[in-house]
Specification:
The complex is a heterodimer of chains A (296) and B (324).
Chain A: H1 9-16, H2 22-34, H3 39-56, H4 61-76, E1 95-100, H5 107-120, E2 125-130, H6 137-147, E3 151-153, H7 162-175, E4 180-185, H8 193-206, E5 214-220, H9 226-238, E6 242-246, H10 256-264, E7 268-272, E8 280-282, H11 285-293
Parallel strand pairs in A: 1-4, 1-5, 2-3, 2-4, 5-6, 6-7
Antiparallel strand pairs in A: 7-8
Helix pairs in contact in A: 2-3, 3-4, 4-11, 5-6, 7-8, 8-9, 9-10
Chain B: H1 7-21, H2 26-42, H3 47-62, H4 64-67, H5 72-89, E1 104-110, H6 116-129, E2 134-139, H7 146-157, E3 161-162, H8 185-199, E4 203-208, H9 216-229, E5 233-239, H10 245-257, E6 261-265, H11 275-283, E7 287-291, E8 299-301, H12 304-312, H13 314-323
Parallel strand pairs in B: 1-4, 1-5, 2-3, 2-4, 5-6, 6-7
Antiparallel strand pairs in B: 7-8
Classes of the chains: A alpha/beta (296), B alpha/beta (324).
The structure holds guanosine-5'-triphosphate (GTP) (2 copies) and magnesium ion (2 copies).
Chain lengths: 296, 324
């Protein structure tokens, strides 16, 4: 906007006037910021919106909101395939899902919900409790699994090598001809290099028997700007094929995934909407965007 | 990506510019304030808190202390640091509240996965180390194997666990599904006080289920637990990675259980932790502890000055200015 202006200042300002007050625009930006879309992405969106509003000669804040909705939808709804690899026709058998993410985001819970979902579709599932670190992690996974009659491969003792558990689980899934293997891993903060390396190792040992067709990064909707760093580092460490956005039943909007999707080129596939077995749903761009806009 | 370039990077330009000019104009200050606003937002400080904070800084920056300063840029930085530390440090120096007649009751509350159960173990270990006789209480009867988890944590810490009800676990799950509540956490909490009295434990640490700020029913349950045990300390545990939701959640827990102190968890990560500022300024409650790891000893008294530098990447800024 700072290009030399051949028309003189007055004319230029008439041409660029978008009829809305600064505070109207601030309101629009606030909506995005409050949803954790982030300062840079919000600013960029608002700038684009301002340009569009000028072109269309839009004067009404409500109409601008509608334009924002369109814009966000276009940004979020990338046309990428949001189905799980295991649900696609011709999926590998066993198809593999590895759950990853920072501490406490909902990996084990989502693994449990997924197992239930696949069992309901008549598929046979094996689970690997490759979180050998956190207190009672395997027991927690077992509780979910036993509810739907799914076998869990777990270590004899706490502190065992998670990669060996993953290896064992892959082998058993292969031998038993299961349709699906779901591997739960320990939560880890992405700035811990040794723990991130461990993830790579988990993937590699599974690949000795099976090909890994899905790695789900579980992001907590309350997460702020750190979510972007999480996504990048996990993607580098193990590869990520999809995002699960959990705890969307709370007051957080999960706006960070707008940037995450764009930067990583990986779609949000599922959302967590509660602690119960059925509180898992596929990602719906419209309701996600409406959540952001309604988050005032 | 630019969003994560530090405040240092962004202010350095502004500051070299300012240093060469010596005197600050109102528009210099506004430019600097914009950078600070942006840095706070990138650090996840909530929008409303950012607004009131930058307004305060702006007001001070326009005053005599800056215009008369030898190095105005440095002065602005120290004002920011000052104001941050002040908000973060309100009431922080106080020790834990202990009861006049034991047992001292500490209740933990917070969102799902914030780090409550882990903290119970850390607190237990820390108190035991200081010569206390703590008892951990398993009042999360909802999250699968929360009770088992607390038992393992207690075992690792060498601290006994009161767990009269099993909660949701494999052995008992013929009636309950994961995610559904079972048993009576209020009763467990209430009975734990008698248990402590009769067995002479001097501190009771009650682990509760994670709950959302918007979940009225579960918030009422937390209140019922509180009213059954009259805690000397109610600690709100919040994840340092939380974004803009920090304020709404903190307010909900403040209204719900009127917590007495805050624990910031997962500070071993690389999140800037702006939530600390949000929670401290909207609730006025002190941040008492920092949790910084998964181990039993990864826990310390909260340091407001360190947190201030962390939020603003201030360590680097101070160096930068010193080099000028
Ligand atoms: N409200 C809500 N709670 C959830 C959701 N998903 C998981 N939780 C809760 O979040 C907490 C943590 O979930 P876990 O599944 O144990 O998370 P995790 O990622 O496996 O945790 P670690 O293994 O310790 O890293 C539990 O209390 C879950 O019940 C969700 O979608 N909504
Ligand atoms: N890195 C790190 N991890 C932590 C810290 N505190 C807790 N955790 C981890 O975070 C996850 C959740 O911790 P919990 O103590 O189970 O959290 P909670 O609040 O009891 O969770 P719910 O009972 O499900 O609501 C676990 O993986 C812990 O090991 C911390 O300070 N640093
Ligand atoms: Mg887990
Ligand atoms: Mg817990």
């Amino acid at each position: 906007a700072k290009s030399p202006n051949p028309f003189g200042k007055a004319l230029f300002s008439i041409l660029t006037k978008d009829h809305l007050s600064e505070s109207d625009w601030e309101d629009v930006e606030d909506t995005l910021l409050r949803a954790d879309v982030g300062a840079e992405a919000s600013e960029q969106l608002v700038d684009e919106l301002r340009a569009d509003a000028r072109v269309r000669g839009e004067k009404d804040p409500q109409a601008v909101r509608a334009m924002l909705r369109e814009k966000l939808l276009a940004l979020v709804d990338t046309g990428q395939d949001r189905s799980l690899a295991a649900s696609r026709p011709g999926a590998a058998k066993p198809s593999v899902i590895i759950m990853v993410g920072v501490n406490g985001t909902g990996k084990t819970t989502t693994a449990g919900k997924l197992a239930r979902l696949f069992v309901a579709e008549g598929k046979s599932v094996v689970m690997g409790a490759a979180d050998t670190f956190r207190a009672a992690a395997a027991a927690q996974l077992q509780t979910w699994a036993s509810k739907v009659g799914v076998q869990v491969v777990r270590a004899e003792r706490e502190g065992a090598d998670p990669a060996s558990v993953a290896f064992e689980a892959a082998q058993q899934a292969k031998e038993s001809g299961a349709d699906l293997l779901i591997v739960d891993t320990a939560g880890r903060l992405q700035n811990k290099a040794n723990l991130m390396d461990e993830l790579g190792k988990i993937r590699r040992v599974v690949e000795k028997n099976l090909s890994v067709d899905e790695v789900l990064l579980v992001l907590d909707a309350t997460t702020g700007q750190n979510g972007m760093v999480q996504a990048k580092v996990f993607a580098e460490a193990i590869g990520v094929t999809g995002i699960v956005l959990t705890k969307l039943d709370g007051s957080a909007r999960g706006g960070i995934v707008v940037s995450v999707q764009r930067e990583l080129g990986v779609p949000v596939k599922l959302v967590g909407l509660g602690e119960g077995p059925d509180d898992l749903s596929s990602f719906d761009p419209e309701s996600f965007v409406d959540g952001i806009l309604g988050g005032e | 990506m630019a969003a994560f370039s530090s405040l240092t990077d962004r202010l350095s330009n502004a500051f070299t510019h300012l240093r060469s000019k010596g005197k600050l104009s109102e528009s210099d200050i506004d430019g600097t304030i914009r950078e600070i606003r942006r840095a706070l937002l990138d650090a996840d400080v909530s929008l409303d808190v950012v607004r009131s904070f930058t307004a305060k800084v702006r007001e001070r920056a326009l005053g005599a202390e800056v215009s008369e300063a030898l190095n105005p840029a440095q002065q602005v930085v120290s004002i920011v640091n000052d104001e941050l530390t002040q908000i973060l440090g309100a009431g922080v120096d106080r020790p834990l509240n202990f009861a006049k007649t034991p047992p001292t009751v500490i209740m933990l509350a917070g969102l799902q996965g914030a780090g409550k159960t882990t903290l119970a173990g850390k607190l237990g270990y820390w108190l035991k180390d200081a010569g206390h006789t703590p008892l951990l209480v398993a009042a999360d009867l909802q999250r699968p194997n929360a009770v088992t988890q607390l038992q393992v944590v207690g075992e690792r810490a060498g601290v006994p666990v009161y767990a009269p009800q099993p909660g949701v676990q494999t052995e008992s799950s013929d009636v309950v599904s994961p995610g559904q509540a079972t048993g009576d956490p209020v009763k467990v909490a209430r009975d734990s006080i008698q248990e402590a009295q009769s067995k002479l434990y001097d501190t009771v640490i009650i682990d509760t289920a994670g709950r959302l700020g918007v979940d009225q029913e579960l918030m009422a349950q937390a209140r019922d637990i509180r009213d059954a045990v009259h805690p000397d300390e109610i600690l709100f545990v919040i994840d340092a990675m939380i974004g803009q939701d920090a304020v709404q959640t903190a307010k909900a827990f403040d209204e719900g259980v009127d917590f007495t102190g805050v624990v910031l968890s997962k500070l071993d990560g690389d999140a800037r932790g702006g939530a600390a500022l949000s929670v401290a300024s909207v609730t006025g409650k002190p941040i008492l502890f920092a949790s910084n790891g998964e181990g039993l000893k990864d826990f310390e008294v909260f340091h407001p000055d360190r947190m201030a530098s962390r939020i603003l990447d201030m360590g680097d800024i101070l160096t930068l200015i010193e080099q000028a």
